[in-house]
UniProtKB/TrEMBL annotation:
This is LOB domain-containing protein 12. Residues 8-109 form the LOB domain. It comes from the Eukaryota. It comes from Sesamum radiatum. Belongs to the LOB domain-containing protein family.
């Protein structure tokens, strides 16, 4: 850490070509072995603004603030117009796209499962009917995915209780 007698100045003081004081607000966050870190933050925000921001924060929040400033400055260097907002928007669109792909995959899995269930249903019903475990069912050779109609001929109503058969 810079600022102490005999040590090298922090990256900020080195870049700004000034003596690093003992109480230098930059020294704990911009060590001399990472000069690029302060250089990019200084280029985007300016040393005076960074100093003001850090001095207004409690000591325990300064490291997080510096980390955020470095992230934002790096994002601004990559994308001068949108900065980290552009990265956030890009990531949000990726999340939305992946959620749509997941929903499509889940729908496809459901369709496959329904097709398999439809293939098993006639055989299961026929087996149960042969063993007299269930009332008489009428198996329609063509039926759609959503409706399988079967009824108890003795009660004249559907198994689901929806339709009466005359």
């Amino acid at each position: 850490m810079g600022g102490a007698a005999g040590n090298t100045p922090c990256a900020s003081c080195k870049l700004l070509r000034r003596r690093c004081a003992k109480d230098c607000v930059f020294a704990p966050h911009f060590p001399s072995d990472h000069p690029h870190k302060f250089a990019i933050v200084h280029k985007v925000f300016g040393a005076s603004n960074i100093s003001k921001m850090l001095q207004e924060l409690p000591l325990h929040q300064r490291a997080d603030a510096v980390s955020s400033l470095v992230y934002e400055a790096t994002a601004r260097a990559r994308d001068p117009v949108y900065g980290c907002t552009g990265a956030i928007s890009y990531l949000q669109s990726q999340v939305a796209q992946l959620q749509m792909q997941l929903a499509l995959a889940q729908a496809e899995m459901l369709c496959i499962q329904m097709q398999q269930d439809q293939q098993l249903l006639p055989n299961t019903l026929q087996h149960l009917n042969q063993n007299n475990h269930m009332p008489q069912f009428h198996n329609f050779t063509s039926y759609n995915n959503n409706n399988v109609i079967c009824w108890d001929s003795s009660k004249k109503e559907s198994t689901y209780g929806c339709d009466t058969v005359s």
